[in-house]
Specification:
By secondary structure, the protein is an alpha+beta fold. About 20% of the residues lie in helices and about 35% in strands. It is built from eleven helices and 31 strands. The strands form eight sheets. A seven-stranded mixed sheet has the order 22-17-16-31-30-27-28, with helices on one face.
């Protein structure tokens, strides 16, 4: 039989007809009445999630960096429970993660890694994952992160180094109930002092960037092993003496804080509530406050309703080993979303753990500051909050020494009882001491050269002195106490700060602020927050030509972008003519560094 030649167009029509018939046949074979819903296809996850913790949840952010050229990065905020999630859509594996933030008043930047196959799964960021990455790289993890060449981060390399580290730590892991099947990199865990988190409670990792060696310490008994990042022969095992019994004690200590929180769950108890008093040692002392004074203060504020303790971290071993009765810990107070870190001593009295405060006769705390004033003037440095509460301890001045400061230290003078000591200059001369700053503040502005000498977690020494009622004779002055304070993260360099680093006040105007200063009433203040920052405090002040006046402060929720100021009308009879008024709006970055926007009303 002779077939007619088909044109190209006819061939296409016939093929389409056959395809249509095939599709119809397939649909008919599906059964039913033809109304069945098509199968649901779940799109593949494009996120990496996990827990970022170092003995407690890290308060801060996680940044992920990919292998593209140029590298892409994304940053996510770590939640209060230590969980994070980053969407890596459009990014190329392998990846490195960096968790930046604070735990127990100390700053951390720790690292982890993932392959493309880990997308959709769990990757933790802990001091242990930092070691895993560093051992693969043969160098400290921060240098590896900066290099951007992650080609050695293979699944095999990650598995090998994870297993190697686990073998060296297995005694401690077993003591806290973690079996050999745990994956230090990928196993999900909660930052709740159990399982893997319990191991992080008792392990401390310190990496020396000069020698590229890490020291892993079991803080329960101070046993240590060394991990040489450039070597593959390290095999010493970390022992776990007294770990189990000490963790039991830590759980009992946690119970004390939990009991405290329950008392404040829905209301504020009386300062002499018997249960509340039982949580505190009779010789309690914290920044100069005894037990009665401290309890009176915390029970006078409705803001303490719902207070909780998100993080409790041992700062060293409970002593004596085996039958502990004392120790030191840090804890994070979460007061309606506002976060502060404190350090207390604890002691066991009649078999029960109680809080003893920091046992300091006065407050002596260092921190960083950065300021934006006069629209575009920016400076930064150190701030020291030194206060003799109520003037009860007879402290006349203090000397602060440490990184970034002159060799002889900085003088702080107690000009006004129960107020922060003021930074001075020259030799102590009582009320005639020259102030370092005209505004009499406790801030020490520093240049980039001085800031560059300050390491993270820098320690400062605070000497508290009594002038022995002989101002002109320094030789007979009495040293009342010496304390140390740790500044978690160094101040920002000038190159690290810009207008975008600070909160931008959008209302009121300068004219409206001065009108409010005179008339009083309620004034709404609004602002925008930089990415990753959290609001801290809104402060307002008014002063006269005689430097008298009044002020008010509001503690802010971390996500707040507005707050109401409430003031009575300016009292000219009491203060004189209004000279100045303004807002100090303070926010914090992921390391807890304070950045203040100063906004003044019109003169």
């Amino acid at each position: 039989m002779i077939h007619a030649q088909l044109s190209p167009a006819a061939i296409v029509r016939r093929v389409l007809a056959l395809l249509a018939l095939a599709v119809a046949t397939m649909l008919a074979g599906c059964g039913g009445d033809g109304d069945a819903a098509p199968a649901t296809v779940t799109p593949a996850s494009t996120t990496i999630s996990g827990t970022a913790a170092a003995g407690a949840p890290i308060i801060g952010t996680v940044t992920i960096k990919d292998s593209s050229s140029p590298a892409k990065t994304k940053t996510a905020t770590i939640s209060a429970d230590g969980k994070y999630t980053v969407d890596v859509a459009g990014m190329t594996g392998p990846f490195m993660m960096r968790a930046d933030g604070t735990v127990g008043g100390r700053s951390y930047s720790i690292y982890s890694a993932a392959t493309a196959a880990d997308v959709g799964g769990t990757i933790n960021v802990t001091p242990l994952t930092d070691l895993i990455v560093a051992n693969i790289a043969g160098q400290i993890a921060s240098n590896f992160f900066a290099s951007g060449n992650f080609s050695t981060l293979t699944a095999t390399a990650l598995a090998t180094e994870t297993a190697s580290l686990q073998r060296r730590l297995q005694q401690v892991l077993t003591a806290v109930g973690v079996g050999g099947s745990i994956d230090l990199l990928r196993s999900s865990f909660n930052a709740n002092h159990s399982g893997l988190d319990a191991a992080l409670d008792v392990l401390r990792v310190e990496v020396d960037p000069i020698t590229a060696k890490a020291t892993i310490t079991n803080i329960i008994d101070n046993q240590q092993i060394i991990d040489d990042l450039a070597s593959r022969s390290d095999s010493t095992v970390l022992t776990a003496t007294n770990v189990t019994s000490s963790l039991t004690e830590l759980q009992l200590i946690q119970g004390v804080f939990d009991g405290f929180s329950r008392l404040f769950a829905t209301s504020v108890p009386a300062y002499n509530n018997a249960t509340l008093v039982s949580f505190f040692a009779s010789d309690f002392l914290d920044d100069g406050q005894d037990r009665t004074s401290f309890l009176s203060e915390i029970t006078s504020s409705q803001q303490n309703i719902g207070v909780r303790f998100d993080t409790i971290t041992l700062l060293g071993p409970l002593v004596p080993a085996g039958a502990p009765t004392a120790g030191t810990l840090s804890f994070v107070v979460n007061q309606q979303g506002r976060i502060e870190t404190h350090v207390f001593q604890i002691k066991k009295v009649a078999g029960v753990w109680v809080m003893a405060g920091n046992q300091h006769i006065a407050r002596a705390e260092g921190m960083t500051f950065a300021r934006l004033q006069n629209v575009n003037q920016i400076d930064s440095g150190l701030l020291f909050e030194i206060k003799d509460v109520g003037g009860a301890r007879g402290i006349d001045y203090a000397i602060v020494k440490g990184p970034g400061l002159p060799a002889g230290g900085i003088l702080f003078v107690n000009f006004t009882s129960n107020s922060s000591f003021t930074a001075g200059t020259g030799t102590y001369a009582g009320s005639n001491t020259l102030r370092l700053r005209q505004d009499g503040a406790n801030q020490i502005p520093l240049g980039d050269t001085a800031i560059g000498t300050i390491p993270d977690n820098a320690t400062y020494t605070v000497e508290l002195w009594d002038d022995n009622n002989t101002i002109s004779n320094l030789a007979d002055d009495v040293l009342k106490a010496t304390y140390t304070t740790v500044v978690a993260k160094r101040p920002q360099l000038s190159t690290e700060l810009s207008l975008a680093s600070f909160a931008a006040i959008t209302a009121p105007t300068a004219q409206q602020l001065t009108a409010f200063a005179l008339a009083g009433g309620t004034k709404l203040v609004s602002w925008t927050l930089p990415a990753g920052a959290r609001s801290s405090e809104l402060h307002y002040f008014r002063s006269s030509v005689n430097f008298t006046g009044d002020n008010t402060s509001i503690d802010l929720a971390p996500t707040a972008t507005s707050g109401n100021l409430v003031m009575t009308a300016w009292n000219t009879g009491s203060f004189g003519t209004l000279q100045a008024n303004g807002i100090n709006l303070t926010i914090e970055d992921s390391f807890g560094r304070k950045l203040t926007t100063i906004f003044n009303g019109t003169p």
